[in-house]
Amino acid sequence: MSPAPPTSPTPPPPPQLRLQQSVAAMPVGFAGISLPASVASAAVLGMAKMTTRRIVPDDARERVGGKVAGRTSSAEAWVAQHVGAEASAPCTNCTQGYGPFKGRPCVVVPDLLLGACAGCHFNSQGTKCSFRAAKRKDLEVDDVDAPVPKRSRGSKPADPSLAVSSAPPQSHRKSATKGRRDSTVPARPSRSVYDQDQYAQDLAEAREMTSEQRRVESLHLRGRLLALEVAEADE
After folding, report:
1. What's the pLDDT tens digit per position in 78-90?
2. The whole model's pTM is what?
3. Which three-class secondary structure string do you get for the chain?
């Protein structure tokens, strides 16, 4: 049996491709904040090339800096707030002074941020923007198209009064205090804060993300879940 012919090593990518790959992996600096490659979406890179129309005050940069570098939607909102056009009339949230930029000013970038203003798009809260709701209405698109959970065969209909609460009956657990093993303290009841409306909103946000944005967001959520579990175990 003749030996298999030697295989040639995989050739390296051409220099231009290597340059593109290295540039894509580099962080993007914008308005005093370094944006890692994981949040530098096509929208971020495109808007970063636009003319800067305003500078966000230092207090706002200090307030939102950590979130800008950790979430794609926040990075997009940060750049958009500098380069976008001021809306002729602010959205409902900005009128009330909500959002990371305190509603001053209410900025939009045509054809980007899915119709929301920069302040509402920050931290994936764009579905709350009245601009996006108006745009979806103009396009005759339902605000939320979340699937209706199916009921298994033979199961009884759920009591609507129980649908918004998942708190179990109060139980007792042993105290972790040394020397007081027989004493008990009431366990804290868990409250369901993830109701159907929040699920529908998060689902709508997820469907509007790209696959890469969903992957990055999933990694952030897994890390946060691990931190919560560790903190709970330490108590």
Report:
1. 999 999 999 999 9
2. 0.49
3. CCCCCCCCCCCCCCHHHHHHHHHHCCCEEECCEEECCCCCCHHHHHHHCCCCCCCCCHHHHHHHHHHHCCCHHHHHHHHHHHHCEECCCCCHHHHCCCCCCCCCCCEECCCCHHHCCHHHHHHHCHHHCHHHHHHHHHCCCCCCCCCCCCCCCCCCCCCHHHCCCCCCCCCEEECCCCCCCCCEEECCCCCCCCCHHHHHHHHHHHHHCCHHHHHHHHHHHHHHHHHHHHHHHHC
